[in-house]
Design a protein that fits this description.
The protein has 549 residues and is an alpha/beta fold. It has 17 helices and 14 strands. Helix 16 runs antiparallel to helix 17.
C-alpha cells in the first residue's frame, strides 16, 4: 500500500469528518486558504456547540478514494484519447480539441502564451492534482464568458468502448479521472524545510506536517476565544450559607434551573428579613449584660444576678439562631439580585468546557505517530532501491544520494544526504543541489512510486525539464520514453530541444508510439501531426515552420 492509500484509509476510517475534510483539502490543493482554515474552524465549533447564534458551518466533506489524483476509488486501466469541447479556458478558442495518442508517448509543445498551459490546467484540475492554485480564467481580451470552464474527456476504461466524461470547473470531477496521475512542481517529493534542508516525502505524506500546523492554529483561535471567568464573590454571601456553597460548587454541569431555584426570593422573604432585623435590634438593646450592669448599682438586687445571667444565655442562643437565619436570607437576596451575573458566569463555564473539549480534538500526538508509521511503511527497501535506480537513470549518479531518517513534530521525513561525505560536514543538501537537480530528485521519486503502484494508468507531466540543462533533458527524455512502453505518458513542454530529445529517443525504440501536438497562437486551435525535425531545429535560430493539419 502506498503512503497516499494509507493516508486515505486513515482519513476515511479514523478521523472525525472535519479533520478528514482538512486532509482532503491538503491533498487536492496547493495551500490552505484563509477561507479553508476558517471553514474548518467553524466545523469544529459546530461539533462542540460553540457557534454563535445565526452562524452556520459548512458541512464537512470527508476524504474518500476517488477524490485525489493517483488514488481512484476503483483502479481501472484508463486510456485517455482526447480533451475536447473546451469552453472559457484562457486563450483557447471555444470548441477546441486536443487529440492524444492512445498509447505510448504524447508530447504537447507550445511556446509561452499560446494556450498550452490551459490544457495542462484542465488536466490537473479534472484529475484532482494538487496544483489547483492557478485559476482557470477565460480569455480576458475576449467577450465576457457566459459559462464556467468546461471540457469533455474522451477515454476508454478497461479496454471497453469509448466514453465521454464532462468536466466543469467548480464541480467534482468524475472519480475515474483520478486514475490519471499528474506530476508538476506542486507534486514534488523533495521539499525544502524551514532549516533549509532538502527532505524526501512519499507523495501525500506532507499532510501530516500541514495538518499539525492547521490544528495548532485552530487551537490558538479556540484558546483566544475561550472565556476565563473569575470566581464570584459578594460580601453578603457568606461561604457557609447555601447560596455560598452553591457558588463554590458551580461547574459546567450545573443546570440553569438549579440557579433559578437557588435565586428564589419572594415578598414573604423580604418581610421576614425585615422582621428579623428589627427583632435582632430589640434583642441587642435588651442585652442581659446591659441589664446586669444596671443591676450592679442596686445592692438590693445583687442576689438576683444569677437569674439575669441565665436569661442572657437564653437570649444569646436565640440571637445566634436568628443571625444565622438572617445571614441565609441576606445571601439569598444577594444571590437573587446578581442572578444575571451568575447565569452569565455559568454560560462562561460551559463555554470554557466546550473550548477545552474542542482543543482536545486538536491534539497532534496521534497524527505525529500516524505520520511516522505511514512514512516508515511506505519507504520500503523496494521503494528506496527504486528511487536510487531512478536517480541513476536520470543522471544524478555524480551525486551519491542516500535516504537518512529524520523526524520532527507532525512529520516523519527522510532527509537526503550525500553518501560518503565526511561526518563533520554541516553543509545542507540545498547548498549542493541546484534547483534543477532538486527537480530531478523529485521526478525520480515520482517515477519510483508510480512504478511500484501496480497499475498502468496514464501519467501527465507539465514542463518536467524546467530549469534543467541539456544533460538532464536527454536523460529524462530517455527515461520517459522508456516509461511509455508501460503506460500512456503525456508531456506538456515549451522546450523545443526537449521535444527533439523525446523524438530522438522514441526513434531509437521502434516499437514506441510517439505522437506530437503543437499548440499555436491561432484561431485554428491545435495543429496535429508529427513535427518535422528540421522544422523544429529551425526554431532554435528563430524560425518555426509548422503546417496546420
Amino acid at each position: 500500500m502506498t503512503a497516499l492509500d494509507s493516508i486515505i484509509t486513515w482519513a476515511e476510517s479514523y478521523l472525525p469528518d472535519w479533520q478528514s475534510d482538512a486532509v482532503c483539502r491538503l491533498l487536492v490543493q496547493d495551500v490552505l486558504t484563509d477561507d479553508d482554515r476558517q471553514n474548518l474552524l467553524l466545523m469544529l465549533k459546530d461539533l462542540h456547540g460553540l457557534l454563535p447564534n445565526g452562524i452556520t458551518a459548512p458541512k464537512p466533506q470527508p476524504l474518500q478514494k476517488g477524490m485525489v489524483s493517483g488514488a481512484p476509488k476503483s483502479k481501472a486501466n484508463v486510456v485517455l484519447k482526447a480533451v475536447k469541447s473546451l469552453q472559457s479556458i484562457n486563450k483557447i478558442p471555444n470548441g477546441s480539441a486536443l487529440p492524444i495518442g492512445h498509447q505510448g508517448l504524447t508530447a504537447i509543445y507550445g511556446e509561452n502564451g499560446t494556450g498550452k498551459s490551459g490544457y495542462a490546467r484542465v488536466l490537473k484540475r479534472a484529475c484532482r492534482a494538487r496544483d489547483t492554485q492557478e485559476r482557470i480564467l477565460p480569455n480576458v481580451y475576449g467577450p465576457a464568458a457566459s459559462t464556467p470552464a468546461k471540457a469533455t474527456f474522451k477515454l476508454s476504461v478497461n479496454a471497453g468502448p469509448d466514453q465521454e466524461i464532462e468536466w466543469e470547473d467548480g464541480k467534482a470531477s468524475d472519480e475515474v479521472l483520478t486514475n490519471i496521475t499528474v506530476f508538476d512542481s506542486k507534486c514534488a517529493r523533495v521539499i525544502v524545510d524551514e532549516k533549509n534542508e532538502a527532505i524526501y516525502l512519499p507523495y501525500g505524506a506532507h499532510v501530516f506536517e500541514e495538518l499539525v500546523s492547521l490544528l495548532n492554529w485552530i487551537r490558538q483561535q479556540i484558546e483566544t476565544e475561550k472565556p476565563k471567568p473569575e470566581s464570584l464573590q459578594w460580601s453578603d454571601i457568606a461561604p457557609t450559607t447555601k447560596p455560598g456553597i452553591f457558588l463554590v460548587g458551580l461547574t459546567h454541569e450545573t443546570k440553569e434551573t438549579e440557579v433559578e431555584g437557588t435565586a428564589a426570593w419572594t415578598n414573604d422573604d423580604a418581610k421576614k428579613l425585615e422582621k428579623l432585623t428589627k427583632h435582632l435590634a430589640e434583642l441587642y438593646s435588651n442585652d442581659p449584660i446591659k441589664q446586669a450592669a444596671k443591676l450592679r448599682s442596686f445592692k438590693e438586687r445583687v442576689t438576683n444576678l444569677k437569674a439575669y445571667v441565665d436569661q442572657r444565655a437564653a437570649s444569646l442562643s436565640e440571637r445566634g439562631k436568628l443571625k444565622i437565619e438572617k445571614t441565609e436570607l441576606l445571601a439569598r437576596r444577594c444571590f437573587t439580585n446578581n442572578r444575571t451575573k451568575i447565569l452569565a458566569y455559568l454560560v462562561d463555564l460551559k463555554t470554557a468546557h466546550k473550548c477545552d473539549q474542542a482543543n482536545a480534538a486538536t491534539n497532534t500526538a496521534a497524527i505525529t505517530r500516524k505520520g511516522k508509521n505511514v512514512v516508515s511503511e511506505a519507504l520500503t527497501p523496494q521503494l528506496k532501491d527504486a528511487i536510487q535506480s531512478e536517480l541513476e537513470s536520470l543522471g544524478t549518479d555524480h551525486l551519491p544520494l542516500n535516504l537518512k531518517p529524520s523526524g520532527s513534530r507532525g512529520e516523519t521525513l527522510h532527509q537526503l544526504e550525500l553518501k560518503g561525505a565526511s561526518p563533520g560536514c554541516k553543509v545542507n543538501l540545498t547548498d549542493v543541489l541546484s534547483e534543477g537537480e532538486q527537480r530531478v530528485v523529485a521526478l525520480a521519486g515520482f517515477l519510483a512510486e508510480v512504478g511500484l503502484g501496480q497499475h498502468s494508468c496514464p501519467i501527465v507531466l507539465d514542463d518536467p525539464v524546467s530549469s534543467l540543462d541539456h544533460r538532464y533533458r536527454t536523460k529524462i527524455a530517455a527515461r520517459l520514453v522508456s516509461e511509455s512502453q508501460k503506460r500512456q505518458v503525456i508531456i506538456f513542454t515549451h522546450d523545443i530541444a526537449f521535444l527533439l530529445d523525446l523524438q530522438e529517443k522514441a526513434g531509437e525504440l521502434s516499437e514506441i508510439h510517439f505522437t506530437t501536438q503543437t499548440v499555436l497562437l491561432k484561431q485554428v486551435g491545435v495543429t496535429t501531426g508529427r513535427p518535422r525535425v528540421c522544422d523544429h531545429r529551425s526554431r532554435l535560430t528563430g524560425f518555426l515552420l509548422c503546417g496546420v493539419a
